[in-house]
Amino acid sequence: ASIGVVGITLDNLDIATIMSAADVACYTAKDMGRNRVHIYEASDSLLVERHGQMHWANRLVQALDENRLVLFQQPIVGLNGHSHEEHSEILLRLRDEDGEIVRPDNFIPSAERYNLMARIDRWVIHQVFSLLEYNELNQQEVTINLSGVSLVEDELLRFILKTARDHKINLEQICFEITETAAISHLGKACHFMQQLKKQGCRFALDDFGSGLSSFGYLKNLPVDYLKIDGSFVKDISIDPIDKAMVESINRLGHVMGIRTVAEWVENEDILKIIKEIGVDYAQGYHLGTPKEMRRVH
């Protein structure tokens, strides 16, 4: 059992506030391993974090209901013989109650914790397919991020295929990007999902490659088309020989397996020059193009 306790004092007599605090304390007890009691203290950092996530979850549901999610697009530039190809990654933002753009690292953790990612992923897929139907995306290929939750959801495959039919989309234009962590956590389901969509022409990219512990071992089992080299290795490649060696190793491994490589976080000309010399196939980063807001389809 997980128990949340909150004291009731003369300064704290509002029932809604008391119940909310008890709820937060109870969830904190679960987060800490269950089978324990957690007492609410306003200064508790875990409770403050949980309160913030609950607050964002409520705001996110409202934003979904009011259609205030926003898509941005960032170019993925071909190098070394791939320069004629036009690719881009679809990025998610949120427009808050005051009209300001909010980055995903502010709300995605709450969406993951409160089981909202599947709904968000479906919204993104529907929007992108609608844009493709009306020729609003002049790209040979667009990359859509999928959460680990969606990756193992049985209905998602059917949803993608039906939405593609409804919008008359050629799935050869679509690349789904999954994180290394999600892939290794659900290897069997991830492989099945990927294999079924690859039959329809979809491609797959493995994001943040190199940041996990088992990258090289499980890669043989995943039918991916692109390896996105973790940006933490790329950003200091011009000054850190270890980072450069990591990028060279990942690039070489990808090419041996017939997988194309993408360097993330290419922020200046020095980085771009080095990854070209290494032979990386594609580059993405602010030096090559910042994310731009896309036209909305209702």
How is the topology of this model organized?
Blueprint: E1 2-5, H1 15-31, E2 36-39, H2 45-65, E3 69-78, E4 86-95, E5 101-102, H3 104-113, H4 117-133, E6 141-145, H5 148-151, H6 154-166, E7 174-179, H7 180-185, H8 187-198, E8 203-209, H9 215-218, E9 226-229, H10 231-234, H11 241-256, E10 260-263, H12 269-278, E11 282-283, E12 292-293
Parallel strand pairs: 1-2, 4-6, 6-7, 7-8, 8-9, 9-10, 10-11
Antiparallel strand pairs: 3-4, 3-11, 3-12, 4-5
Helix pairs in contact: 1-2, 2-3, 4-6
Essential attributes:
45% helix, alpha/beta, 298 residues
Write a compact overview of the structure shown.
This protein has helices at 15-31, 45-65, 104-113, 117-133, 148-151, 154-166, 180-185, 187-198, 215-218, 231-234, 241-256, 269-278, and strands at residues 2-5, 36-39, 69-78, 86-95, 101-102, 141-145, 174-179, 203-209, 226-229, 260-263, 282-283, 292-293. It is α/β, with parallel strands linked by helices and 298 residues long. Helix 1 (15-31) packs across helix 2, helix 2 crosses helix 3 (104-113) and helix 4 runs parallel beside helix 6 (154-166).
